[in-house]
Amino acid sequence: MLEALRARIAGLERRGSARRARVLPFGSPAINAQLPGGGLALGCLHEVAGAGPEVEHGAAAALLIAGLLARSSGCVLWAVERQDLFAPALAGVGLHPDRIVFAEAGPSVLLVMEEGLQHPGLAGVVGEIGGRLGLTASRRLQIAAEASGVVALALRRSRRFDNPALVEPTAAATRWRVACLPSPPPLAHAPETPGLGRARWRLDLIRCRGGEPGTWVVEACDAQGRLALAADVQHRPAAPARRRLG
Amino acid sequence: MQAHDGRRRILAGVDRAAQALGLFPGMPLAQAQAMLPGLEIAEADPDGDAQALAQVAAWCVRYTPLTAPDPPDGVWLDVTGGTHLHGGEAGLLADLLGRLTRGGFAARAALAETPGAAHALARYGDPESMIVPPGGCRAALATLPVAALRLAPEVAETLRRVGLDRIGQLAAAPRAPLSRRFGPDLLRRLDQAFGERFEPITPVVPPTMITARRAFAEPLLTAEALTAMIGGLVATVCAALEKSARGARRLDLLFERVDGSVQAVRIGTARPTHAPAHLARLLREQLERVDPGLGVEAMRLVVPLDEPLSPRQGPAVLAGEAAEAADIAGLVDRLANRLGAGRVYRVIPVESDVPERSVRPVPPLAPVPGPRRSASWPLLPRPARLLSPPQPIEALSLLPDQPPAAFVWRRLRHRIRRADGPERIFGEWWKCDGERQAVRDYWRVEDEQGRRFWLYRSGDGSDAATGNLRWFLHGLF
């Protein structure tokens, strides 16, 4: 009976034609389990930002987004204010730059995103937003994304990491923060060997519509864009099972 | 070139070499032949010259929809609002003069606020091409001779005898006596050059282009009215394109205003198309750039560039990838017309180790090279953000082949816990002489908080010619 109730509420929330909500799954089942639908819902706006001092450049956030889109197919529109993205890094996480159309929009990133969200053939629209993203603007993007079924990803950047515009409420379905963590030595049995292993991130889901927030320590995207829960965290004693809302 | 001026044969035009030897237009032919026995003479052909001038004016439509010949030897281009498409004002002039010179013409150009000023500066101005900033007309024209004002030769001669040799002196002289002595034309030319009197130029539309024109009984003022008319014009032009199986790549919409001036907007498409809805939408988005003034009495739509339509792009129902590509073309067109064509692109890798040169933008709809292209994406890890230019940091490393223990960037100290490298990248001596021996040693480093940076040291540590051993931050992971 609980399942029936959940389905009814999900149907009411969708507020449109009863089509099966499609999702973009993360590479890690633990994260997918937390999200309603088992992944990032397509046809919605999602927000990603770096945490702390990384909010200025958002390098890890860009790689997270690229890793997600790597496992979809089709063209991606990436709107920036000024171009500082280095394409070989995106190729390194599986998002082949041949699929990306870049648009240097200056101050009109939101307009360009809306333009792109009117094309159902795109795999995703990414916009690097340096300023405010209030309720009104984000609702417009959300409505445009719902109409076409394209996933909209807003990469928030800001010079100051205590910028109040970053925590302003928006209409995004999920909001994420990515922080860098020290990574373990590449060879566990010989920790003194120089070298860099896979990077480690702390992924915070700080708001999720229809789900609960959560935190994961993950290893950065591999060559196919998949995340993995960090091994020494995985083998901890099991945390109590969480109850899903809805 | 020789012509007959009624009494005797005179020289109508001389080229640069002849000018250097002392010949000038108007010199009697006999005198010229006496000076230089081996002179080559051709018959002057004013009609052919006029036709050639019209052709040059038509060719200039690639820069702006509004071009007009300025007989006998000039062309006017109204480039208001369109200079950014060609790399700015200087870029546009350089491109124009370069192409004309390569085509065999000796050309001079000037950019100014009024047609009169541009005419004067192009012919009598000092450098071969000059740009006058807005409001600088008076100062720029002050030192030019009065003949630059398109006056009748007798008037110019009289002015010189009276002592008014330069335009600056003429402008400073009292107006009423001048008008009494020389008639209204003199002051009219002066006012036109300084911008006090408006001078319209009538743009020429080359006859081979598809065009549709609609005149209105009442001048239109509002955006809604103009928008409504655009649909009709686009439908006519698209029908003509469809009949000849061609698609438009560039469209110019000219607004003929009540006061005689013409304003234009120009749109471009990435693929030839004759879809009326798409083209009308692109034109409507540009409408806000047009100032209707006292009213628009006619609108004309011209297709300066069209290309054959390949059968794949026909209006039949397409499936899968082809439909998606057509969809992207529409999106790319709208973004390119809104932001500027150079701001919407894809990137491809370039055969270059130097990171800042290893990617190149290409137009978004250019065919993607196959998997066996010459350059491919580097296999080694690269940072997601590349700083341009690389930022200098303070770092100290004990040995040339060790990463630094710490570095200071933006007054914050980062202690390095782990590092990977060095990756040695050599300069490209074939691109830049200064890079003949330049070497960069790149390190991927992680600091105590886990943030990863891409640092490099310029120089290999043992040979001073390879670099000055300074450290830089080039990217963030």
Overview of this protein structure:
The complex is a heterodimer of chains A (246) and B (477). Chain A has helices spanning 2-14, 29-34, 59-70, 87-92, 109-116, 135-148, 231-234, and strands at residues 23-24, 40-41, 45-50, 76-80, 100-104, 124-129, 151-156, 174-181, 200-208, 214-219, 228-229. With 246 residues, chain A is of the alpha/beta class. Chain A has one domain (21-183, 197-234): 3-Layer(aba) Sandwich (Rossmann fold). Chain A has a nine-stranded mixed sheet, sandwiched between helices. Chain B is α+β, with helices and mostly antiparallel strands and 477 residues long. Chain B has helices at 16-20, 29-35, 46-59, 88-102, 115-124, 137-141, 153-162, 167-172, 175-182, 184-194, 223-243, 276-285, 321-339; strands spanning 2-4, 9-11, 67-70, 74-77, 109-111, 129-131, 210-220, 246-257, 262-273, 296-308, 344-349, 359-362, 385-396, 406-409, 412-426, 439-447, 452-458, 471-476. Chain B has a six-stranded antiparallel barrel. A four-stranded antiparallel sheet of chain B has the order 7-10-8-9. In chain B, strand 16 and strand 17 (452-458) form a beta hairpin. Chain B starts with a strand and ends with a strand. Chains A and B meet through helix 3, helix 4, strand 5, helix 5 and strand 8 of A and helix 13, strand 11, strand 13 and strand 15 of B.
The number of domains of chain B is 4
CATH superfamily of chain A: P-loop containing nucleotide triphosphate hydrolases
| Annotation, overall tally of beta strands of chain B | 18
β-sheet strand percentage of chain B: 25-35%
Number of helices of chain B: 13
Helix and strand composition category of chain A: alpha/beta
- Report Rg of chain A: 18 Å
Globally, the shape of chain B reads extended
Supply the number of structural domains of chain A: 1
Number of helices of chain A: 7
Structural class of chain B: alpha+beta
> How many β-strands of chain A, per DSSP?
11
Indicate the low-confidence ranges of chain B by residue numbers: 313-320
Oligomer: heterodimer
Strand order of the largest sheet of chain B: 13-14-15-16-17-18
Low-confidence stretches of chain A: 16-20, 241-246
What is the overall pLDDT average of chain A? 84
